[in-house]
Each structure stands twice: as structure tokens, then as C-alpha cells.
Write a structure and sequence with these properties.
The structure is a single chain. By secondary structure, the protein is an alpha+beta fold. It folds into three domains: 101 residues, no CATH class; 161 residues, Jelly Rolls, CATH 2.60.120; 144 residues, Sandwich (Jelly Rolls). The strands form six sheets. Strands 1, 4, 8, 9, 12 and 13 form a six-stranded mixed β-sheet that branches. A five-stranded antiparallel β-sheet has the order 6-3-10-5-7, with no helix packed on it. Strands 14-24-17-20 form a four-stranded antiparallel β-sheet, with no helix packed on it. Helix 2 crosses helix 5 and helix 4 packs antiparallel against helix 5. The longest helix is centred in the first third of the chain and has 19 residues.
Amino acid sequence: MRFVITSFLFFASCNLLVAQSIAYSQVKPIVDAKCVSCHRTDGYAPFSLERFDDLKKRSLFIKHVVSTGYMPPWKPNNHYRSFANDKSLTAEERRMLIEWIDSGCVEGKPVINQLGNKYSSGSQFNRKPDLVLQMSAPFEVPPINQNVYICYKIPFELPNDTFVSAIEFVPGNKSVVHHASYQILAVEDDVNVNAGPAYFMYDADTLNRVKDDHDYRYFKLIGQSGAMPIEMYHNGWLPGTSVQQYPKGIGFHLPKKGVLLIRNFHYSPTAIPQKDLSKFYLFFSEVQPERKIGFAAFKPKNPTADGKWYIKANDSNFTAYINVKFHNDVSLLNINPHMHRLGKYFIAYALTATNDTIKLIEIPNWDFNWQEFYRFQKMVKIPAGSVLHAEAIYDNSASNPENPHNPPQDVLFEWGMNDDSEMMRLVLLYLPYQVGDEKISLE
């Protein structure tokens, strides 16, 4: 009798363990929320994780990158400031994924695909784009095994003015497209936006020397009266960047005639010929935005008289600062810190006139390969009289595995865009403040 009771308890405990095993239906929402925006068919990542078989096939690899924190890529310190487009895993989400893998990747009951056809258009956004702006012809990236930078014009003409609530950059060739900084410009009625060349390549003398007068004349965007194009929107894209989307009533005006000008289009080094045909998805607003998004980019002040500023070889603690005073109340939407491969640490905060600190972002371990236009959970008010402080630290020593020079050499600071230079930028997307902005969710 005792044997029967013991056996019963044994099998009961086994059944209880099976019943408590984590099933695919429990981990799929985590993967959909934190991974699939990149790991999908036609996504930026090299493989899809949209289906059970995809996840199971790479389960051991997933366990490794999740356990080490390498994936999902998320660099800000969430204890300093949380963001709406946070891709990091919580401790509980990480535990569930690892436990599911350790228990043998139990599939359980069939799972309904909650994503539906969300990515069927190739977009991260949950609808078909209203307008696609694509490069007119593939750009041939030269096989010179060096960074290549171009300025590229994408013209457009529409039946009438409209308004945009979300925009998404879609790289054509994921193996070489590294980043893009772009603006949307309105032009005079007498400008033929289709005239003139489609692009020019930066050379050693023009790197980081964006000049409106030269660029607008080169692309024949100046009206007969001499009027320059008017910037309607300015933003950028880097690997992993989320769709730039805004709440109802917030967006930007898209003129019926203008250009999307990629002012800084960066292709990574390649030893074989490559072609790229990148594009932008634009999603129109259902209502006319009442508020236009502003763009501001700040850089440190050069302390040298001759304009040349160096990070000396073997300096592992070179530090640069940005200090900017706000003269009006503003509401911040997004923040984007930027450095190159020598970057090690970045922090930004605002100090109000009453000495209150408004934490904005801290990146303890900078990674050039993973950058983002971080979107605040709610708008962040910066009162007039506040001073924005940003600090960036660089490591130009041999102990920095990202250092492009071995042995280390002196590197120009704030003087270009290639591996022979470094820079510091802090980009903000903002609105003039209105009462109640702090309560508006950007999730």
C-alpha cells in the first residue's frame, strides 16, 4: 500500500511539473514586443523570430545573448530614466525565456499569431504607409573598404499639402547602410525638384562641412527669387532605431512639393561591390497637427584658437561638455546622444533655475553599433532658465576594443565623420511647452 501511495505521489509531482512548464504562448508576447521589430521577415536583423520553429532552432544562441545582456540591444541606464521605446528585457521576462529554453522549448497549445499582418508591408508600424519616398536608382557603394558618405535628394510632388504623424526609414542593403541624417524641405513653386543631380559624395575636404548654400544650389532647390528651401522636419536613423511616431495632434507639415534630403548617408566599408535602394515610409495624420515638432542639435564649444582639437593617443579619459541655456519652456519628445567608436560614457540632464535636476539620459557603456532616438514615456518639461548639461567621455587607448587605430594615434575631435575623427552631439526633438504636456503619454 505504501508503494502505491508513493508511486501516486511521484507521478502526481511529475504531472505538476509538466503543468507548470512555461509554454511558447507565454514567451511569444515577450519576443513580439522586444525582438520581432528587427527579427522579422525583411527586418534589419539577420533572421526572423516570428514563429515557434524560428525560436526553437536558435534557442541555445538566444539563451546566451539574453543571459549576457547582449540582446536585446539597449544601452541607457533604466534606473536613471525610462523610455517608451525600451527594448530591454525585465528580470522576469529574461527568467521566463531562459526557463522555457531550459525546459525543452515546450510548444503547448497552438498559438494565434497576435501580430497578424502587422509587418506585411515591411514596416514596423501597424498599417500600410500612405507615401513611400525611395531613392530614384540604386546607389553603387564602391568596393574600397572605406567608409562612404553621400548627400542624396529624393524629390516628391503631391496633389496637396498634408500632415505626417509617423515616419520610418527602411534600409535597402542592411549589410552596408549604417546611418542616415535627413530633413524634409519645402521649396518655392518655381523650383523643379526633379532637376539636377540625385547625389554627391563627400570627400576629405567636405566631411562634416554641411553647407546649406552649397547643397541647395547643387541640387537646384533655390527659387528664382533667391529664396532658400524651408525645413519642415529633421531626424535621423541608426541600426535599431524605432519608428518615429507621435500622438494625435502632433506631427509635421508635408508640403505638396519638396524634397527629402539625406544630408549624411553613411555606408560601412565593403571590399565587394554593393548596391543600395533605401526608402522612407510616411504615415499621414488623420487630423491636421496643431503643433509642429522642433529639432535641435548641440555640440561642444571648441576651446582651441586654430579650430583643431585632438584626443591624444593613449588618453583613456578625454572628456567633452555641452552646456546650453533654455530661454523658453519646452517639452521634450526624443533625445539622441551621439559619439563615434572612442566613446565610453554619456550623460545628459537639465538643471533648473531653482537647482532641481531633470534626468534625461545616461549611457554607462557606449556602443557605437547601437544608437536610438530615445522617446520619453511622457513629455518632459524643461522650464525657461534651465541649463542643459551633457558630458561625454572617450577612450583612445589600446584597451578600447573599438579603437580603429592599433597602435592608438591622435584623433581629431569635432572635425569629420570618418574613423580618423570623433564627435559629440546631443539631438532633441521638442515642442514649445503647453500646460498639461507632462501628462501626455508617448508610449
